[in-house]
Amino acid sequence: xxxxTANYGNGHLQVAHTLYERFLLHDRADxxxxxxxxxxxxxxxxxxxxLYLKSFTKSGKYLYRLFYYxxxxxxxxxxxxxxxxxxxxxxxVIAEEQPDVIINTYPSYAVEYFSxxxxxxxxxxxxxxxxxxxxxxxxxxIEKYYVATGELQRKLVNIGVDKRKIAVTGIPVGxxxxxxxxxxxxxxxxxxxxxxxxxxxxxxxxxxxxxIKQICEKLQKNVNLQILVVCGKNExxxxxxxEKYQEGHNIRLFKYVTNMAELLTMATCxxxxxxxIILSEAVAKNVPVVLLGATPGQERENALFFLRNGAALFCxxxxxxxxxxxxxxxxxxxxxxxxxxxEKIRVPRATETxxxxxxxxxxxxxxxxxx
Length: 371
Description:
This protein has helices spanning about 10-25, 35-40, 40-55, 60-75, 85-95, 110-120, 150-160, 185-190, 210-220, 235-245, 260-265, 275-285, 300-310, 320-330, 330-345, 350-370, and strands at about 1-5, 30-35, 100-105, 125, 140-145, 165-170, 195-200, 225-230, 250-255, 270, 290, 310-315. It is α/β, with parallel strands linked by helices. It has two domains: about 1-170 and about 350-370, Rossmann fold (3-Layer(aba) Sandwich), CATH 3.40.50.2000; about 180-345, 3-Layer(aba) Sandwich (Rossmann fold). Helix 3 crosses helix 4 (about 60-75), helix 8 (about 185-190) crosses helix 11 and helix 9 runs parallel beside helix 14 (about 320-330). The longest helix has 20 residues, at about 60-75. The mean pLDDT is about 85.
């Protein structure tokens, strides 16, 4: 099993790593994860990754909106292989790994280009990592698409993808998000007050949300709340908040975490940007979501999906966040209604379902070929 990923944002990497870890538990497959963009040209990959992170800035949003939506239209109108970038590296990786199956966790045309150029048909599967559709994911040689929702399945069918090639599985999250955890036990572990509502604020893997400090400053004045802040890889944000909120404040600070399942279990609601993975984790733990202003593109489309389905509040302006969050936390009926909406979106055991389906499909095809 060759899993292809990319480090534009953290979501694609997380899905690839989740699949990798779960594949290791099987005795039916060996597995490898490769980032062909990084291997093709590390400097260019780092430069484009930094450009992607710029999309979270005020000026960068306009450029990313132009790229995301214009590329969508170009791909829809022209059935051509626009970006075979990475093909030569993929060719070397395939020669080295000798994969029986390729799994895409990032929309790349290298696999499609490889199939047409070499006439070697290695079964390829695609795990889509957002709640919206960009046409870059759609390629003729894909054996099966694994998608988050029935809405995505219908969109794929509407553009001509065979329904039998689409499975509504949800987005893979770590095993800990499927485990039942005791909220009271965790509150005791983290020395939090069980009688207070708990707000989890997630700045993202790279801590790109500049509004976090303002939100913390206003929310911590509410004596009926306790706040957990995940700063991601933003060391500066972590140290600034650490310096401001010493012991005695109702705030707990974290850097990049691997215990998100525990933090979400304790949370009454989560404030976050609408990345596909953090949303999937909130769905798995059934935690109402308050969304920060989204970057145009997949983030905004994710946010609109959750808003349409009553599973999140979407605040375009940072100033709305605190007011809307406090209103939500005072309205238990509304919290319960949002939890119910999240439950309708949830598809349990996404990772196991995808892995079992790929393995079963591969071994079935192998068996058929021998008869």
